[in-house]
Amino acid sequence: MAPLRPAGRQTTPVDHCAACALVWFDPLEFDGLDRAGWVSLLMDTLATGAPEPGLGSADWRCPRCDSALQARPLAGAHGRHTAMACPAGHGQAHGVAALLASRGLLQPLGLAERLLLQQREGGLACMSCGAPLSAHDEACGHCGSPLLGVDVPRLAQALGATGGKALGGKARGDGPEPWRWGCHGCGRVIDPSADATCPQCGSPAQAPRLADLEPLLAQARRRLDDEQGRAMREALADMSDPERHRVAAATGRPEHRAASQRAERRWWQRWGLIAAAFGLALALALCSGGCAT
After folding, report:
1. What is the DSSP code string of the chain?
2. How many other C-beta atoms can be found within 10 angstroms of the C-beta atom of residue 127?
3. pLDDT digit string (tens) for 6-59?
4. Greater confidence, 154 or 2?
């Protein structure tokens, strides 16, 4: 496993196994990620994808004590889900599907949705293990997982959506731009924060593949970066000049150095104006004295 540091205000390093597409959480790490950290973690793990169908849970072992991991049902704020846990209590492993399930973002795919997706996408795959599936399957024949899809409106809400602008309609909320996601039923681009079903074909906004989430997560990352940038600029604006210099020296970030350089330029400009005013006053005083004599 390799260390992974999801970006966010609360930096919680976790361990990531690219070969089996698992994320390992030590005790208390699972609840230590903020929204930006979850977006970053999902994007990093989605780049790996689901494990190969030949790699099962019997191959998953604890990176601390090498004990075989055991499936353990867990209850959280968003419902129940299953993780692969160390019997000695050293931590738990989650696949991408389990991470989404822990946030209550998965829902069963109905037969009508499966048939439509198979016709349009040319095939289905298990979200847990990646094994190929038929639309008539009720569960994965390899790992036994039910056929699930990601509830895209709930995911958009979890990523910070508050109801943006309906595409082609009036504004719904104060979002700067509408969220965009392509309907799997007809291909129409919809705003999942405003519409739970496609206005054109009525298909539910569900993502059958993990790769379908990447555009939505990319939008969320851009929005979070913009929010953090605004908050940073506001915080820097409220700082004194010495504080800006200390922040720039500590972080070395370009935006902090730029703020420090602007403050330094203002300092020199201020003292330049004072020196110019003093020189003008002195010149006037000397001129007045010379004229009086």
Report:
1. -EEE---SSS---EEEETTTTEEEE-TTTTT---HHHHHHHHHHHHTT-SPPTT--GGG-B-TTT-PBPEEEEEEETTEEEEEEE-TTSS-EEE-HHHHHHHTT-EEEPPHHHHHHHHHHHS-EE-TTT--EE-TT-SB-TTT--B-EEEEHHHHHHHTT----BPTTS-B-SS-SS---EE-TTT--EE-TTT-SB-TTT--B-EESSGGGGHHHHHHHHHHHHHHHHHHHHHHHHHS-HHHHHHHHHHH--HHHHHHHHHHHHHHHHHHHHHHHHHHHHHHHHHHHHHHH-
2. 27
3. 655 555 677 877 777 788 888 877 777 777 777 878 877 777 666 655 555 667
4. 154
- Burial bucket for residue 89 (CB in 10 Å: 0-12, 13-18, 19+): exposed
Beta strand 70-76 pairing with 79-85: antiparallel
Q: Could you tell me if residue 185 is left (phi over 0), alpha (psi between -120 and 50 degrees) or otherwise beta?
A: alpha
265 conformational bin, left if phi > 0, alpha if psi -120 to 50, beta if neither: alpha
Q: What is the pLDDT of residues 172-187, one digit of tens each?
A: 444 456 788 888 878 8
* Residue whose tokens read 């602007």: 262
